[in-house]
């Protein structure tokens, strides 16, 4: 395996099927992927998750970033039935408007994730809930008020990171006003820049000031800025993150296997355009054939000069900064003193319930 191939592989985070490391994900780890994302399909119990993350980290023999969607509400991979504390959707925190409570909720999530060897939580959602018909965000957002979203999102991210788990503000530059789900369609918004500056961008700027570890892009076309490409693939849109929101850390793509991308752009085009737009870490969450093909496409683009060596090195450096959050294999014997403690349950009880403990959005990131 060449040094270039390993460098390209290091920009990818991949998913797999099963409760133990599959042969396919082991091969991808040997190839050099930088991270692995867990879904509900990988979870049976807290002890099993700790064993799984430990096995993957030992297989890698290097910093390997383990990640998950643990937002609260309907998007939680690790649930009460697995031995974890469940929190309601972030709308419940937004209704309370209490920064200290949001910070405590983030710390709770961080403690439980760190205990089972997870290094990065794709949370908080800092989309602004401006469209009651939105099929994918809704109660995952804190509020329809950008200031509340920024204030509480920053507090939750700081709570997470206080426990050694990286936070991720999503979905830049904002998925809150769409009427389509990017898992199934390619949403388009016509918002002009003044609207983005007043509604969608302020929460991301607040999270940048608060020191959030990463930001995830949205597979949404903002046609006033780029008529042809979603934010993930658009230099014009991602420049707003750097130049207007002041975030200079690692940018993570939403999953390139989502239909918003996969049904509208060839894989190689999506990979190349994303990296050239400014994405540093690429999620490819489901199929090993697609994951290997994506790495191949990135390597070929660098070899042909379609992605510069300088841009590859920049992305590598940012991805390496994110991997500094990667911890050692967890101590499975210590879980009882961390998960579902009386303090955690008391904190969860301070927030209103948001319905049955289900995860209908099993593919969400």
Summarize the structure.
The chain is of the alpha/beta class and 365 residues long. The protein has 13 helices and 12 strands.
Notable characteristics:
365 residues, alpha/beta, five-stranded parallel β-sheet, three-stranded parallel β-sheet, 13 helices, 42% helix, 10% strand, globular
Helix and strand content put the structural class at: alpha/beta
- Estimate the mean pLDDT confidence: 92
Percent in strands? 5-15%
Main sheet summary: 5 strands, parallel
Shape: globular
Explain what this protein looks like in three dimensions:
This protein has 365 residues and is of the alpha/beta class. The protein has one domain: Glycoside hydrolase, family 3, N-terminal domain (TIM Barrel), CATH 3.20.20.300. Helix content is 42%, strand content 10%. The protein contains 13 helices and twelve strands. A five-stranded parallel β-sheet has the order 6-3-2-1-12. Helix 6 runs parallel beside helix 7 (193-209) and helix 10 crosses helix 11 (288-303). The model is unreliable at 354-363 (pLDDT under 50).
